[in-house]
Amino acid sequence: MDLELKDKVILISGGAVGIGAAISEACAREGAIPVMVNRDSAAASGFAEKLRGEGFRSELLTVDLQTPDDCRLAVEDTLRLHGRIDGLVNNAGANDSIGLEHGDPERFLRSLKGNLWHYYSLCHYALPALKQSCGAVVNISSKTAVTGQGNTSGYAAAKGAQLALTREWAVELLPYGIRVNAVVPAEVMTPLYRRWLSGYPDAEEKLKKITERIPLGQRMTEAGEIANTVVFLLSPRAGHTTGQHLYVDGGYVHLDRAL
Ligand code: NAP
Question: Which band of pLDDT confidence, cut at 50, 70 and 90, is reported for residue 10?
Answer without folding.
Answer: very high
